[in-house]
Design goal:
By secondary structure, the chain is mainly alpha-helical. It has one domain. The chain is 70% helix and 0% strand. It contains two helices and no strands. It has helices spanning 3-11, 19-35. The longest helix has 17 residues, at 19-35. It is elongated, with a radius of gyration of 11 Å. The chain starts with a helix and ends with a helix.
């Protein structure tokens, strides 16, 4: 799923999810996976 699609889905959640917090968590996981080897 692309970041744009994720943002669209989160916007549909009607503020039940903090989108900025969610996106920052995804970026953290992505970056951690890139550095761990």
């Amino acid at each position: 799923m692309t970041p744009t699609k994720i943002r669209e889905r989160l916007e549909e959640s009607e503020d039940r999810v903090d989108t900025e917090l969610f996106v920052s968590a995804l970026e953290y996981v992505r970056d951690d996976g890139r550095t761990r080897r």
